Amino acid sequence: MKSSLKNYLSITKKEWNGLVVLVTLVVLVLLTPYAYRLFHKDKIINFNNFNADATQLPAEDSSNAANTKVLHPTLFAFNPNHLPAEQWLKLGLSQKQIDVLKHYEDKGGRFYKKSDVQKIYSITLDDYKRLEPYIQLPADGPASIIDINHADSASLVTLKGIGPAYAMRIIRYRDKLGGFYSKEQLKEVFGIDEEHYLLIKDAIKLNPSAIHKVNINKATFDDLRRYPYLSYKQANAIIQYRSEHGDYDNLDDMKDIAILDEATLNKVKPYWLFK
Known about the structure:
Helix content: 40-55%
Number of helices: 14
Keywords: Membrane, Transmembrane, Transmembrane helix
Largest sheet: 2 strands, parallel
Radius of gyration: 41 Å
CATH superfamily of the domain at 146-210: AF1531-like domain
Pfam families: HHH_3
Order of helices and strands: HHHHHHHHEHHHEEHHHE
Strand content: under 5%
Protein name: Helix-hairpin-helix domain-containing protein
Transmembrane segments: 16-36
Protein backbone atom coordinates (compact mmCIF):
# COMPACT_ATOMS: atom_id res chain seq x y z
CA MET A 1 0.00 0.00 0.00
CA LYS A 2 2.71 2.49 0.99
CA SER A 3 4.76 1.56 -2.02
CA SER A 4 1.88 2.14 -4.46
CA LEU A 5 1.02 5.49 -2.83
CA LYS A 6 4.64 6.61 -3.02
CA ASN A 7 4.78 5.71 -6.70
CA TYR A 8 1.56 7.67 -7.33
CA LEU A 9 2.85 10.86 -5.65
CA SER A 10 6.39 10.74 -7.00
CA ILE A 11 7.37 13.11 -9.85
CA THR A 12 10.24 13.07 -12.27
CA LYS A 13 13.03 15.61 -12.35
CA LYS A 14 11.68 17.00 -15.62
CA GLU A 15 8.24 17.48 -14.09
CA TRP A 16 9.78 19.16 -11.03
CA ASN A 17 11.69 21.64 -13.19
CA GLY A 18 8.49 22.48 -15.09
CA LEU A 19 6.64 23.08 -11.84
CA VAL A 20 9.38 25.42 -10.60
CA VAL A 21 9.21 27.43 -13.84
CA LEU A 22 5.39 27.68 -13.62
CA VAL A 23 5.46 28.90 -10.02
CA THR A 24 8.15 31.44 -10.93
CA LEU A 25 6.03 32.82 -13.76
CA VAL A 26 2.98 33.12 -11.53
CA VAL A 27 4.99 35.02 -8.92
CA LEU A 28 6.41 37.36 -11.57
CA VAL A 29 2.90 38.11 -12.92
CA LEU A 30 1.66 38.91 -9.41
CA LEU A 31 4.62 41.19 -8.68
CA THR A 32 4.48 43.11 -12.00
CA PRO A 33 1.92 45.82 -10.87
CA TYR A 34 3.97 46.54 -7.76
CA ALA A 35 7.16 46.81 -9.77
CA TYR A 36 5.45 49.21 -12.23
CA ARG A 37 4.32 51.48 -9.41
CA LEU A 38 7.81 51.37 -7.87
CA PHE A 39 9.64 52.51 -11.01
CA HIS A 40 6.93 54.70 -12.67
CA LYS A 41 5.68 57.87 -10.97
CA ASP A 42 2.33 59.42 -12.15
CA LYS A 43 2.59 62.99 -13.36
CA ILE A 44 0.72 65.39 -11.09
CA ILE A 45 -1.64 67.71 -12.97
CA ASN A 46 -1.28 71.37 -12.16
CA PHE A 47 -4.90 72.57 -12.05
CA ASN A 48 -3.86 76.18 -11.67
CA ASN A 49 -2.29 76.09 -15.12
CA PHE A 50 -5.27 74.16 -16.47
CA ASN A 51 -7.76 76.75 -15.21
CA ALA A 52 -5.66 79.56 -16.60
CA ASP A 53 -5.63 77.93 -20.04
CA ALA A 54 -9.38 77.25 -19.86
CA THR A 55 -10.15 80.92 -19.36
CA GLN A 56 -8.58 81.64 -22.75
CA LEU A 57 -11.16 79.44 -24.50
CA PRO A 58 -14.41 81.06 -25.85
CA ALA A 59 -17.46 80.35 -23.73
CA GLU A 60 -19.64 77.56 -25.12
CA ASP A 61 -23.32 78.51 -25.58
CA SER A 62 -25.82 75.84 -26.57
CA SER A 63 -28.05 78.51 -28.07
CA ASN A 64 -25.22 80.20 -29.98
CA ALA A 65 -26.75 79.45 -33.38
CA ALA A 66 -30.12 80.91 -32.36
CA ASN A 67 -28.40 84.09 -31.15
CA THR A 68 -26.27 84.56 -34.27
CA LYS A 69 -26.88 87.76 -36.23
CA VAL A 70 -25.78 88.70 -39.73
CA LEU A 71 -22.50 90.58 -39.70
CA HIS A 72 -23.61 93.29 -42.11
CA PRO A 73 -27.38 93.87 -41.76
CA THR A 74 -29.33 95.58 -44.52
CA LEU A 75 -31.48 98.45 -43.26
CA PHE A 76 -34.65 99.38 -45.15
CA ALA A 77 -38.07 100.90 -44.43
CA PHE A 78 -40.40 98.28 -43.01
CA ASN A 79 -43.70 97.72 -41.22
CA PRO A 80 -43.00 95.41 -38.24
CA ASN A 81 -46.50 93.92 -38.36
CA HIS A 82 -46.29 90.44 -39.91
CA LEU A 83 -42.88 91.10 -41.39
CA PRO A 84 -41.48 87.77 -42.73
CA ALA A 85 -38.72 86.16 -40.66
CA GLU A 86 -36.17 86.44 -43.48
CA GLN A 87 -36.69 90.22 -43.54
CA TRP A 88 -36.03 90.44 -39.80
CA LEU A 89 -32.84 88.45 -40.37
CA LYS A 90 -31.69 90.95 -43.01
CA LEU A 91 -32.36 93.75 -40.53
CA GLY A 92 -29.88 92.15 -38.15
CA LEU A 93 -32.03 90.28 -35.62
CA SER A 94 -31.20 86.78 -34.41
CA GLN A 95 -33.50 83.80 -34.85
CA LYS A 96 -34.21 83.81 -31.11
CA GLN A 97 -35.35 87.44 -31.26
CA ILE A 98 -37.52 86.68 -34.29
CA ASP A 99 -39.15 83.72 -32.51
CA VAL A 100 -40.21 86.06 -29.69
CA LEU A 101 -41.68 88.53 -32.20
CA LYS A 102 -43.62 85.82 -34.01
CA HIS A 103 -44.93 84.42 -30.73
CA TYR A 104 -46.18 87.91 -29.86
CA GLU A 105 -47.99 88.12 -33.23
CA ASP A 106 -49.50 84.63 -32.84
CA LYS A 107 -51.02 85.75 -29.55
CA GLY A 108 -52.73 88.64 -31.33
CA GLY A 109 -50.06 91.24 -30.67
CA ARG A 110 -49.70 94.22 -33.01
CA PHE A 111 -47.46 97.28 -33.28
CA TYR A 112 -49.34 100.57 -33.38
CA LYS A 113 -46.44 102.95 -32.84
CA LYS A 114 -42.68 102.70 -33.11
CA SER A 115 -42.11 102.48 -29.37
CA ASP A 116 -44.19 99.27 -29.26
CA VAL A 117 -41.26 97.48 -30.91
CA GLN A 118 -38.99 98.48 -28.02
CA LYS A 119 -41.40 96.82 -25.57
CA ILE A 120 -40.57 93.36 -26.94
CA TYR A 121 -38.18 92.01 -24.31
CA SER A 122 -35.89 90.33 -26.84
CA ILE A 123 -35.20 93.62 -28.66
CA THR A 124 -32.19 95.35 -27.12
CA LEU A 125 -31.91 99.11 -26.83
CA ASP A 126 -29.13 99.10 -29.43
CA ASP A 127 -31.33 97.10 -31.82
CA TYR A 128 -34.21 99.53 -31.38
CA LYS A 129 -32.05 102.63 -31.90
CA ARG A 130 -30.69 101.09 -35.10
CA LEU A 131 -34.11 100.11 -36.45
CA GLU A 132 -36.27 103.01 -35.22
CA PRO A 133 -35.58 105.41 -38.14
CA TYR A 134 -36.72 102.73 -40.62
CA ILE A 135 -39.96 101.70 -38.91
CA GLN A 136 -43.02 102.78 -40.88
CA LEU A 137 -46.50 102.38 -39.44
CA PRO A 138 -49.93 103.59 -40.54
CA ALA A 139 -51.93 105.87 -38.27
CA ASP A 140 -52.77 104.32 -34.91
CA GLY A 141 -55.82 102.07 -34.97
CA PRO A 142 -57.97 101.10 -37.96
CA ALA A 143 -58.58 103.77 -40.60
CA SER A 144 -62.35 103.22 -40.45
CA ILE A 145 -64.99 101.28 -38.56
CA ILE A 146 -64.93 97.65 -39.70
CA ASP A 147 -68.08 95.67 -40.47
CA ILE A 148 -67.35 92.26 -38.98
CA ASN A 149 -69.97 90.60 -41.19
CA HIS A 150 -68.07 91.56 -44.34
CA ALA A 151 -64.45 92.04 -43.25
CA ASP A 152 -61.71 89.78 -44.60
CA SER A 153 -58.68 88.72 -42.57
CA ALA A 154 -56.57 91.64 -43.87
CA SER A 155 -59.13 94.10 -42.46
CA LEU A 156 -59.57 92.27 -39.17
CA VAL A 157 -55.84 92.28 -38.35
CA THR A 158 -55.92 96.08 -38.31
CA LEU A 159 -58.01 95.84 -35.14
CA LYS A 160 -56.10 96.28 -31.91
CA GLY A 161 -55.07 92.94 -30.44
CA ILE A 162 -56.26 90.91 -33.43
CA GLY A 163 -53.57 88.96 -35.27
CA PRO A 164 -53.86 86.48 -38.16
CA ALA A 165 -54.85 83.58 -35.89
CA TYR A 166 -57.71 85.51 -34.26
CA ALA A 167 -58.83 86.89 -37.64
CA MET A 168 -59.17 83.39 -39.08
CA ARG A 169 -61.09 82.20 -36.00
CA ILE A 170 -63.53 85.11 -36.33
CA ILE A 171 -64.15 84.34 -40.01
CA ARG A 172 -64.64 80.61 -39.37
CA TYR A 173 -67.06 81.27 -36.52
CA ARG A 174 -68.94 83.84 -38.63
CA ASP A 175 -69.29 81.31 -41.47
CA LYS A 176 -70.54 78.66 -39.07
CA LEU A 177 -73.19 81.00 -37.65
CA GLY A 178 -74.15 82.64 -40.91
CA GLY A 179 -73.08 86.06 -39.65
CA PHE A 180 -73.11 88.04 -36.40
CA TYR A 181 -76.24 89.78 -35.10
CA SER A 182 -74.48 91.18 -32.01
CA LYS A 183 -70.98 92.51 -31.41
CA GLU A 184 -70.79 90.53 -28.18
CA GLN A 185 -70.91 87.27 -30.14
CA LEU A 186 -67.23 87.87 -30.77
CA LYS A 187 -66.61 86.79 -27.16
CA GLU A 188 -67.80 83.32 -28.23
CA VAL A 189 -64.76 83.05 -30.54
CA PHE A 190 -62.06 80.94 -28.91
CA GLY A 191 -59.41 83.16 -27.29
CA ILE A 192 -61.33 86.44 -27.46
CA ASP A 193 -62.10 87.35 -23.87
CA GLU A 194 -63.62 90.47 -22.32
CA GLU A 195 -60.28 92.27 -22.49
CA HIS A 196 -59.92 91.66 -26.23
CA TYR A 197 -63.53 92.63 -26.82
CA LEU A 198 -63.18 95.96 -25.03
CA LEU A 199 -60.17 96.80 -27.21
CA ILE A 200 -62.12 96.46 -30.45
CA LYS A 201 -65.81 97.02 -29.71
CA ASP A 202 -65.71 100.73 -30.64
CA ALA A 203 -63.84 100.02 -33.88
CA ILE A 204 -66.38 97.52 -35.26
CA LYS A 205 -69.92 97.51 -36.54
CA LEU A 206 -72.19 94.92 -38.11
CA ASN A 207 -74.91 94.82 -40.71
CA PRO A 208 -77.68 92.46 -39.53
CA SER A 209 -79.03 92.19 -43.07
CA ALA A 210 -75.88 90.26 -43.98
CA ILE A 211 -76.98 87.31 -41.82
CA HIS A 212 -77.66 84.14 -43.79
CA LYS A 213 -81.01 82.73 -42.64
CA VAL A 214 -82.36 79.19 -42.96
CA ASN A 215 -85.97 78.15 -43.46
CA ILE A 216 -86.49 75.95 -40.42
CA ASN A 217 -89.22 73.97 -42.18
CA LYS A 218 -86.82 72.95 -44.96
CA ALA A 219 -83.63 72.71 -42.95
CA THR A 220 -81.78 69.41 -42.90
CA PHE A 221 -80.03 67.94 -39.91
CA ASP A 222 -76.67 69.17 -41.29
CA ASP A 223 -78.09 72.70 -41.68
CA LEU A 224 -78.96 72.77 -37.98
CA ARG A 225 -75.94 70.92 -36.68
CA ARG A 226 -73.52 73.63 -37.82
CA TYR A 227 -74.89 76.09 -35.30
CA PRO A 228 -72.63 76.12 -32.21
CA TYR A 229 -75.70 76.79 -30.05
CA LEU A 230 -77.34 73.43 -30.79
CA SER A 231 -76.23 70.01 -29.62
CA TYR A 232 -76.57 66.85 -31.72
CA LYS A 233 -79.65 65.77 -29.77
CA GLN A 234 -81.33 69.17 -30.02
CA ALA A 235 -80.84 69.37 -33.79
CA ASN A 236 -82.21 65.86 -34.18
CA ALA A 237 -85.19 66.64 -31.94
CA ILE A 238 -86.14 69.64 -34.09
CA ILE A 239 -86.19 67.47 -37.23
CA GLN A 240 -88.10 64.64 -35.55
CA TYR A 241 -90.72 66.96 -34.03
CA ARG A 242 -91.31 68.59 -37.42
CA SER A 243 -91.74 65.16 -39.03
CA GLU A 244 -94.35 64.17 -36.47
CA HIS A 245 -96.28 67.46 -36.08
CA GLY A 246 -95.80 69.29 -39.37
CA ASP A 247 -94.18 72.63 -40.15
CA TYR A 248 -93.43 75.24 -37.49
CA ASP A 249 -95.44 78.47 -37.67
CA ASN A 250 -93.24 80.41 -35.27
CA LEU A 251 -90.66 80.04 -32.53
CA ASP A 252 -93.33 79.35 -29.92
CA ASP A 253 -94.12 76.04 -31.64
CA MET A 254 -90.63 74.87 -30.77
CA LYS A 255 -91.06 75.48 -27.06
CA ASP A 256 -92.88 72.15 -26.85
CA ILE A 257 -89.60 70.36 -27.56
CA ALA A 258 -88.48 69.35 -24.09
CA ILE A 259 -84.71 69.57 -24.61
CA LEU A 260 -84.86 73.11 -26.08
CA ASP A 261 -84.68 75.88 -23.47
CA GLU A 262 -85.70 79.47 -24.08
CA ALA A 263 -82.12 80.79 -23.92
CA THR A 264 -81.06 78.49 -26.76
CA LEU A 265 -84.09 79.43 -28.87
CA ASN A 266 -83.33 83.13 -28.45
CA LYS A 267 -79.77 82.56 -29.69
CA VAL A 268 -80.86 80.80 -32.89
CA LYS A 269 -83.96 82.94 -33.56
CA PRO A 270 -82.13 85.55 -35.73
CA TYR A 271 -80.95 82.77 -38.09
CA TRP A 272 -84.29 81.08 -38.83
CA LEU A 273 -87.24 81.74 -41.12
CA PHE A 274 -90.62 80.05 -40.63
CA LYS A 275 -92.20 80.70 -44.01
